[in-house]
Structures
1.
Amino acid sequence: AKKQGFWDTAYTNLLRERLPSDLKNALIVNKKAWNNFQKFANSYRNMYIGWVKNAKTEKTRKKRISEVAKNSLENKKTGIE
């Protein structure tokens, strides 16, 4: 990790996960949800993105995307169970 340069950023929130296009599309439908999501700290954004990416089935992924969009609209930074 040190040789590859990951050591210094391993436990920081400086990096943002790449936003999957299906999640982005669900968020930009509602301007308020999109704006709220963009204002979340990297740690919250990354948590939501990782949660969506780790879905094992397409059905689960769609459900999670819907939940992230709903939580973003309500400006909820948590809610992942």
2.
Amino acid sequence: MSLISAISFVPQGHAAEFPTKYKLTEDEFERIQGLSALHLSSARSDLAIAKKGGNAETANDDGDDIEDEEAVPISATTQEIEDELAEYNLEDYDNDEEGEQMGIFNNIKGLAFHSRGEADPYITLDNTADDSDEEEREELQILPTDNIILAAKTEDDVSHLEVYIYEEDSANLYVHHDILLPSFPLCLEWINYNPAAQAGATSSSGVNNVAIGTFEPDIEIWDLDTLDALYPTTILGAKAGTKRRKKKNDKYHTDAVLGLSANPNAKNLLASASADETIKLWDLTTGTCAKSYSFHSDKVSAVQWSPKVATLVATGGYDKRTIISDARIPDKPAQSYAVGSDVENLAWDPFSENIIYTSTDDGILFAHDIRNTKALWRIQAHDSTLSAFSVSPSAPGLIATGGQDKQIKLWSTITASPTMLTSRDFDIGKVFSLGFLPGQGMQLVAGGSNGIVRVWDTMTNPGVRKAFKSNSAIAKRQKKQGVQNVQTGEKSMASVGDVEEADVEDKVIGVEDKDGPESDESESEEEAEDESLGVEAMDLEDLNSSGSSADEDELIDNADFEGDDGWVKEQEKSRG
């Protein structure tokens, strides 16, 4: 089994040009011990319950705390140890046999020594090692113009985060590096903020991080500029060595984290949605939960900050509702909409502060104006679950949707009645994640149940060009580059193929296999079907940093809000 469960993006220019390799120092080792203690204490609590014949998942539903228990070492008796020593003669194991003389310099007379290594005629070392290091450094270089795609991938029960580089000019897509994850990832969110010092960590590492939600109740934050990292920079959840409750509370999640959203205006704020029916607001400056909301009566599957109104947050859940709330007013939501089915995803319109879109389990896409109580429109976009969709950040009215029917569709919402522009199957299986690349381009990224990542330039589709011919971004791009080629391929680079429709090429790039990068810049001899991709948009641009956090209410009231939008979605509907 191989699947892509979530996709996110790093805006151009935010990644380090030369990522550093992870080094295990003494300070880092102490920090890792502190992070490990969090999981160890929880495991000890579960073990204590199991020994008593209880259930670790339900034993604390009454709200009682579980005290962390010290592990009791199991040791053999003294007699057993003595018997083993006698049986294998371990008492005399290190003693030399009689008459045997050994020494490390017994054959010293046969050795020749040169004070300078290069004087030894048998040593022919050159600068090969230095040249190899320099070549590796160049291969790892990330240019300011590179598009960075983050994809959560699970293959054969092993999960990892893949960091892709997409070079638009050369239509090149490959995996730059990856990070091994301890649990199945459900959602990703890029964070342009230094997380708090936790368990010995410092907040001086850089501002290119990703928050990851999994089936575990903790949120892990990883540094994307560090290669081969063993542990996350920060873990948001119950503190190590403290009492941990299984029942939902105001301090940390107690079930899977299904959605994440970083506030685009106050970078130290992160909202999370969980299967424990709560939404939590985290202050990354301190690494603690500042507020907890309980607006939903079932699992909360999606959360999204408004890109225009700094304190508005939209949430959706399995209680079949989309709720708009003000983070400064935790007791009462501002607006609530019944959508008739489980909410899969949410997205604000990047061009209107009042429009929110909702996708549902029965394949319907809703548009609501938060100033009104009724939906602006609704369309039956897919025959089954509408698991992912994205609103174009550069072409107003262009929406891409993807469903578990394996179809990816493009829609025009310029008029009051949305119309479908095209529908394609890109052989990625059930579509779990979609996203428009940040910036002024119109590239879509998609991933699904086949474990494949695809990138498609929607401008190359004739239906899109016709519907949005007056769009300035399209006109500028056509004048500069014209129409590009379609590429498909596997895991590190792809073969190139032309896709023709109405005498126009429709281009897609894919990464599937692990054989290494390869490219073909010439016209492809391999013909493919014309296809288009839907994607989940994550328009995350450089945001001005808000200062350190204050008390719970001041945390939001005093924040310096400005920026653009970003959203994350749930990929798995239920545990197991």
3.
Amino acid sequence: MRINQNIFALNAQRNLQNTNSQLSVSLERLSSGLRINRASDDAAGLAISEKLRAQVSGLGVSVDNANDGISLIRTAEGSLDRVNAILKRMRDLVGWAANGDKTDADRQKYQDEINQLTEEINRISTTTEYNTKKLLNGDIGSKVTVAAADAGEVESAGVSGEILRTGTYVISVLSAGVAEVEGLALASGTGYSSSLYSALGASGAYTKTLNISTADGKSASVTLNVASSDGDTVETAIQKINTALQNAGMVVTATWNDANDRIELKSGEVGSKYAIAVVQSNSVSGAANFTITQVTTAVDVTVSVTDPAGGANQLVKSTSRYFAAGTSTLEPVDSSGIAGVTFTLTNAAAASTGAAVTLDVAKGSLILQIGPNKGEDHRMEITINDMSASTLGVNNIDVTNQANAQAIIDAETIDKAIEKVVTERGKLGAYENRLNHTIQNLGVEKENLTSAESRLRDADIAQEMMDFTRNQIMLQAGTAMLAQANTVPQTVLQLLR
């Protein structure tokens, strides 16, 4: 028997310390509700649960973003509902003005109301906003902006504000009289020789400058002249061009005009203007193509902006341009496919010098972060087109006489404007439905990730109470045994008596 070292007491003390430590862990887990309170509790589990916790938090933010997006969309759609109602009223007014029982004085009253309704459409377009962000003025859609030394002298037709249809565009000068193209004054009906051929730059980016003479603002067709060559026949070329236009989603049809030996591409749709750019075959991926095979001679190309109603013809001509054998490309120059396409015009109303005007085609959009992570799959792009009267094609409605009113009905001007508004509302409705499904999916994902994080991190209260009870009993027993162990050396005294 030994008295210097009490091994029994040391053993009891060690076990009592272990019990104290386990009891402390049980108390911590029961009081916090967490199984992992520090990295030492479960290093791997902590790392996984922290990532899951971040995902769950991000999903909550994504749900908030999607709900905000729905609120924005409903704001825009509500305003478009009023634009729809205004257009229906304008349609009624035009119908009454077209009736023969009305006098011109009566029609002037209709015109006065139409003017006010037009202004209201423009007001709605410029003032509808969500959180100070403009919704219907084209800021979050494909838009053409005008910059000029004296912008008041020049207007644009077909590209003013929002371009509603993807494709290429005719740019016209609305003001009558003499205009200036590349420093040369051109009267109505004259043309100017200018290249339509452009090669790719070193960076692979496509750039194109198109210089156009004056037009009367009613451009509705574009004509491409191709002189005879050793390549395709006229019929084959027309077939390939029509296929290219159809693939590009452009409402344009190519036909042959025997009177002036022209291939004419006519749209005839108010607000849908098109132009043609011929570029080399390795231009832009996915471009609409047609083939001119084994062209060994010069090809004369003429583009003319034609007003079918008035018969006026404005020419921009490119002569004696050579094309290599093989494939040439009919490339749609549009704001969604090519950023920063710039068209330059000059206007010299009655003078030899004019003010330079730049029309910059740029695509705008609104991006919603509807997922917790990076990448396009976690974002949603929203575009809302310009809904101004000029973009809808109803800014110049004139019903002051019966002929004008009937012409508006025949051209279906207001019907087409209504269709554009309805199309835009349908797109907004599709956005909202998608966001509703997104919110539902995010909710399910958040629920599942929360459950996974809980299984890793949360304490099992039943199990912890069992451990706590056992540790309490062990603590009491250990304390009692330590007291008993401390009395063991006293038995040595019996040997000393």
